[in-house]
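Thread: "does anyone have the structure for this chain?"

Original post by V.I.:
We have the sequence but no experimental structure in hand. Need at least a predicted one for the grant figures.
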Amino acid sequence: MTNSIREIEGMEVIFVIGSNTKETHPVIANRMLKAIRKGTRLIVADPRRVPLVRFSEIFLQLKPGADAALLNGMAHVILKEGLCNDEFINERTEGFDEWKKSIETFTPHNASKITGIPEEEIIKAARLYGGSRKAGIFYTMGVTQHTHGTDNVNAIANLALLTGNIGREHTGISPLRGQNNVQGACDAGCLPNVYPGYQRVDIPMVKKKFEDIWGVPLSDKEGLKSTEMTLAADKGSLKALYVMGENPVMTDPNIGHTIEVLKKLDFLLVQDIFFTETAALADVVLPAACFAEKTGTFINTERKVQLVRKAVEPPGDAKEDTWIIAELSGRLGYPMKYSSAEEIFEELSSLWPALSGISYSRIRTHGIHWPCPTKDHPGTEYLFKAGFPRGKVSFTTVRYLPPAEAAGLDYPFVLTTGRNLFQYHSGSMTRRIASIEKHAGEPYVEINTEDAKKAGIKDGEKIKVASRRGQIEIKARVTDRISNGILFIPMHYREAAANVITTDALDPHGKTPEFKVCAVKIGKIKVSGE
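Reply from O.Q.:
Generated one for you, tokens below.
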């Protein structure tokens, strides 16, 4: 997030796109509701009538995969009606004229044809967002989990640059993180192309810096992203895999293929707090301690570094992740002599100026937002106040590209996937809680009322949902929450796993799978004797 959670309550306009915020980020949604009670105006863009819609002034119910067309269409209106921030554009951006030409064809009429949103609603949303200088955009995986997810994010950035709604309090772009320490994991270098602090592996000075600190020669080649690892293992060029705190048998697309690939490996190691579906395929399982069983830091979605303290002892033979990693490293020939998580954090802060001013002693009572370059710095709630690190930042031309799969005669529906309020991610934790299971322990597919009527499907009836990759049997939930021709399945349920049928088509840049769009068909289940 470029800005802090606190600032939400001071925004004039909140634009939520591709995020079921009230169910998947309820703490942040509550901040939004407080803002709305104070007069903030809300725009929601989503294929489903998600719970936050009832508080919105404008609801843009777009077709799955049409985000770029909507964003470009809004930008077209903002330009045409003179709502852009000329001073900000001239002083802090470049490439504006070329980008401006690229959206000439994205008239409200053309954007409406692609998105399915009425022209007047696109215009209304553009006027509301473009007319404010205290507006924030919030998005999650409804924007990124597409074959053109990177383009969608660039289109969001263009909209913020066009209006100057970045670099100031109560503005910004907020990609809400899906898990509690995803931001911290990325900050610490758990990405294949960077060392801690987003320092690129292919820059010689960076490479030398980390070689000197760690005392070993390092490669200047980027590693593989997780989806690329699956492809490499399938081809036989990746022989072993170490999976820590992930459950790809549930969370990867095209699960059948993922299982085949994992079985091909010479060696699979899984380290987790529970025996997951992926652990069931492993050669070795290492039991890990959960967050309450260790001391360390979390960096949350707003870049706030927070101290987490050990509350209970790990059960059985479970060990802290840092202890396991250090033990493995030592037995592979590289001793890691860290005595505590605090010592590891001190090394991280010494290597990345954004954390240089943060220490355990400073965050014992309150977290601090990075960048925090010195010991007396208060931390940075919002980014880019003094400008962008590279000077002027560029507008990016974004073309509309359709999803990898489209509905057709054989597969007439579009499936989109996501989460619900009560379950979490692959269910490895929440599905072990009896009260949650009692309330939300059964998988379901949302189907529009008219579509259900045409197919002769009743609410609560078990049906088949099939794609080119596989099929599942699942109960129908008949609702007007979703548009005609679209289905929705939450990802949490192993007995009817949505990712059995999702496509493994990837974004060419980020290599993110297109979880949010695939072509499917539905069918009634024949009862024996019929």
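V.I.: this helps a lot. Residues 274 and 432 are 10 Å apart (CA to CA).
O.Q.: and The chain has three domains: 6-176, 182-369, 413-524.
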